[in-house]
Each structure stands twice: as C-alpha cells, then as structure tokens.
Amino acid sequence: MKQIVLVGFMGAGKTTIGRQLAQRLQLPLIDTDHLIEARTGKNIPELFSIHGEEHFRVIEAQVLDSLADTEGIISTGGGIILKDSSRLKLKQFQSVVYLSVPIEDLITRIKKDHENPRPLFLNHSEQAFREIYQSRMPLYEDVATVIIENSGKDPQSLTKEIIEKVGV
Ligand code: S3P
Question: Could you give the subunit structure recorded for this chain (predicted)?
Fold first, then answer.
C-alpha cells in the first residue's frame, strides 16, 4: 500500500502538489477539508462561523482517523497537527511530507486565493497570524518523515523531489 500525507501551513501548496503526486503515482487524491465538507454539508468558513474552530477540529480528527488504512495521497488542512491525538495518528501513516514555506510567501498566496478563504487569516491580525505560523512549525516537524522546502520551486520539480525523498 502506498500512502503519502501532505502537511503544512495554509497556502503551502498541499492541494497543488497533491494533485501532481496523485497523477504521477497513479493514486487517488484525498483532501481532508473536502471530506469534512461532504460529511457536514457545510463549507469551511460556515463551519468555523456556525460551530467554531474546536468543533471543526473534532470532525477533522475523525476524518483523519477514517483514513488510516487508505491508499493514496492525503492532503490535509493546515491545522491537522494541533490535536495531540491527531499528531499521534499522523505518525502512524506511511509517509508524512511537510511542505515548509516562508510566511511572507504564504501571506501573499493566501491573499490572492479568493476561491479558498481561510477563516484564520480573516479573523486575525497579520501579526497574530505570523505567531500561529511560528507556533505550528515544530508540530509539523514533529510528525514529518520528510521535510521539503517550497519557496519559489515549480510544482513539477517539487513533486519529483518528494517522490525521490519518500522513495515510492
Ligand atoms: C486551516 C487550514 C485550512 C482549513 C481551515 C483551517 C488551519 O486548510 O482546514 O481553514 O487551521 O490552518 P488549508 O491548509 O488547505 O488552507
């Protein structure tokens, strides 16, 4: 069974790289945010505004749990590493790739991504958002089996780099 989980902050390229990896490796692409939306019938901003972040995290953890034995490329939401129990679960997946991107690049990308508004960006000052980034970095590093720097690299070479480093 082949299984690669992509983790990293919002805007790190998990969806784009996930698509490329799935195509190159001929594996299904699974997106935890999409599964949460399908399960609840609500989109992410609605879930945050109606039920709050903690409720979202509980569903996110359940969705992660349901994927333990699933083959494919699993693209996760940026906050999947927040719950201790979710980090423990992530460590049981075959490969966990952390896409590490400088915060300046992320802020630029998130501001441009109108199709995918991030409640955490909209609800915090830029300074507070930077602090969230800093506090999460060690959590991504904790669960990662491979760390990939993604600043200004094109998706194709990044995908190649991941395949080489993961060894699939
Ligand atoms: C979140 C990241 C989002 C989404 C939600 C919360 C986070 O996913 O799960 O808005 O806490 O970092 P992306 O990382 O795909 O933007």
Answer: Monomer.
CB 75 within 8 A of CB 14: yes
pTM higher than 0.85: yes
118 known ligand binder: yes
First to last CA, the chain: 10
Q: How far is the CA of 78 from the centre of ligand 1 (A)?
A: 4
pLDDT (tens digit per residue) in 91-139: 999 999 999 999 999 999 999 999 999 999 999 999 999 999 999 999 9
Which CATH superfamily is 3-152 part of? Answer: P-loop containing nucleotide triphosphate hydrolases (3.40.50.300)
Distance separating alpha carbons of residues 19 and 30, to the nearest angstrom: 9
Residue nearest to atom 9 of ligand 1 (CA): 77
Domain ranges of the chain: 3-152
Q: Tell me how many degrees the CA angle 13-91-88 measures, rounded to the nearest 5.
A: 110
Binding pocket residue ranges, ligand 1, CB within 6 Å:
10, 14, 33, 44, 77-79, 118-120
